[in-house]
UniProtKB/TrEMBL annotation:
The chain crosses the membrane at residues 25-43, 63-81, 88-107, 119-136, 156-173, 179-197. It is a multi-pass membrane protein. Residues 26-75, 105-204 form the Cation efflux protein transmembrane domain. It comes from the Bacteria. Keywords: Ion transport, Membrane, Transmembrane, Transmembrane helix, Transport, Zinc, Zinc transport. InterPro entries: Cation_efflux_TM, Cation_efflux_TMD_sf, CDF/SLC30A. Coiled coil: none annotated. It is found in: Membrane. Gene3D superfamilies: Cation efflux protein transmembrane domain. This is Cation transporter. The lineage of its organism: Bacteria, Pseudomonadati, Pseudomonadota, Betaproteobacteria, Burkholderiales. Pfam families: Cation_efflux (PF01545).
């Protein structure tokens, strides 16, 4: 790398790759997200909840995210930027997919089971808050590290919304709180994906001129 490095800093990726805490944090995050994917798929199908199923797909995507981040540790910095660019697209497309799925459930007219939504939402919130706190110190790294932090942050916000949606479904007996939260999760995915894409593009330009 040369002086063409931008505000994320050239040395952030190199020093972070040597930090065993970063590698351990990614492994823990991967295991947590893979496990919660299985929990939310089962619970989402049982409860007929668009928000839980959307969040389950998000957990799966994040497990892949952490796995890719582990794969590029120690490689040239440009590979981290390339992976971040792919993950940005994945996050944005995931958000659009959630919107389509929520629309399909709305058309079906199904009503989710609020207690299942609430209990699994709380469990997921605890898991994601733990991951977010663990990754907080690494949020100022390169675009790849930023994407990892954004995923964990978005997940925690989404789980808070799911718990509130469960209360809304319980209080109203209607499906619309669940569908609204599914839309919020989708918006977080799209906005986070676009932010990562912008950072990754900036880094890839810097690498090209290095």
């Amino acid at each position: 790398m040369s002086a063409h490095c931008h505000d994320h800093g050239c040395n952030a990726d190199t020093s972070q790759a040597r930090d065993p805490r970063w590698r351990r944090a990614l492994w823990v995050a991967l295991v947590v997200n893979a496990g919660m994917f299985l929990v939310e798929v089962t619970g989402g199908l049982s409860a007929e909840s668009a928000a839980l199923l959307a969040d389950a797909v998000d957990f799966a995507a994040d497990a892949v995210n952490y796995g890719l981040s582990l794969a590029v540790i120690g490689l040239a910095a440009v590979w981290g930027s390339r992976v971040a660019w792919l993950k940005g697209w994945a996050m944005a497309l995931y958000g659009l997919g959630v919107l389509v799925h929520a629309g399909w459930l709305a058309w079906q007219g199904s009503s989710p089971h609020a207690p299942t939504m609430g209990s699994i939402g709380l469990l997921a919130l605890v898991a994601n808050l733990g991951v977010a706190v663990m990754l907080y110190r690494f949020r100022k790294g390169d675009a790849n590290a930023e994407s990892v932090w954004l995923c964990s942050r978005n997940d925690a916000l989404a789980n808070i919304a799911i718990v509130l949606a469960a209360l809304g479904v319980f209080g109203t007996g209607a499906a619309w709180p669940d569908l609204v939260v599914a839309g919020i999760i989708a918006a977080l995915g799209v906005s986070g994906g676009l932010r990562v894409l912008r950072s990754a593009r900036h880094e890839l330009r810097a690498h090209a001129h290095a």
